[in-house]
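Issue 218. Parser rejects a valid record. Input:
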Amino acid sequence: MKATIVLIADNDAENFGRKLMLEAHRYGNMGFEMARLPQHVSLKQPYSIPNLEEMEHFFDRFARTLSSMDIQFTGMELFPSNVLGGVESGCLSLRVKETSQLKDAQKRLNEYLTKTFGPCPAEHDDDYIFHMTFAIGGAPFNAYQIAYGQLKDKKLDYTFRFSRLGLFYYDDDSITPGSYFCYKVCDLL
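Output the parser choked on:
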């Protein structure tokens, strides 16, 4: 089992991301896989956990150390993704401006995880790029290329307030569609 901790979008950012999801779908017919989760900015990619109860206690303690923060989008990105179980698919996301507050939250999370559970390695621990995904894994990669071509010139430089923290739970270590969900949410100061 795995988990991750994320900053959850406010209503305006959630609606903005959902609108982009629908627009991308209309261009690329990729479906709504990303609708399984609230719009969010991850502080770390999924990592293995000993059990959900211990992770929940950790999450509650960590949430009390964070304050809400402004997240600024700076552009759109297209990446390959294998979320369809090995089939070359895609991912469309909004790049997030890396701020000292965001980087500090990520650093504290990693330090606190290590102190509490020991090493909790995750993909991209050394090269993580903050982003908010709005479309993933519902079609072949070329569908994402088509949608990206249609959407890449949209005005995307918006700033939104993120004032909630989320705990995502993954029942299947391979993170197959349908095996994960937002388990818990709490408000930040």
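Fixed in the parser; the record now loads. The CA atoms of residues 164 and 187 lie 4 Å apart.
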